[in-house]
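[job 0417] fold request received: Acetoacetate decarboxylase
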Amino acid sequence: MTSQETTSAGHTFRLPAQLSASIVGAVFPAARDDVATLLPAGLEPIRATRTRAVLTVLAVAYDRVGEDTIDPYDEVGVLIPAVETDTRTWPYLSGLRRGVSGYVYTLPVSTEPARAFGVDIWGYPKLVADIDLRDAGRTRHATVTADGQRILSFDGWRPPTIPAQLSGYNYTVKGDQLLREKTRLSGSVGIWPRGHAELAFGEHPIGQRLANVAVDERPLYTVAADCDFEIEAGSAIQS
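[job 0417] inference complete; emitting structure tokens
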């Protein structure tokens, strides 16, 4: 089912939204209790290992948004892989299947039209930030600052990729309503167990909140994709 949404910046998008992107990220084991405090009511963290949840960072360069509706932009997302309350998850298997889906905790972007695109349509917690995103060999570096304060720094190794199609869900809160957005990805995708990645949080209030989460230094795996990406309109989750 298709629909249209017009943002506060004056841009009209057809849903499901169609994007093209280059993604590098990492999925880090994290303390389950710490992660759970960042989730809204109705969600709980996945069991990524026998004792740990996970926290995911994705550094993304979009080169097409909609029908070239807005200019390309960069974003760096922090996601908490999660499921709806009382949904069963399995150690390791759920970490692989759901590691890049879940609740979007923060989503800094490099332009105002990109912020309006996410906030107005789905309630994504986007803010406009200074994003230094660059590739050196197989490593993507991202530093995110807002209001002169660093939110985070991330370095992730890009694993080899193969053709693949994946689907998942993102969760957001718009107003007081928890929403689920189905996502689909097709293109070149890579997942590499225990790949190299580094993550550090800064002095910005968002960074300080995330620094309270006990995150392992070594990721569960690193990910990469050069892909087309689709986001459906949000569906309300009844509590």
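[job 0417] notes: DSSP finds four helices and 17 strands in the chain. The first strand starts at residue 3 and ends at 6.
[job 0417] exit 0
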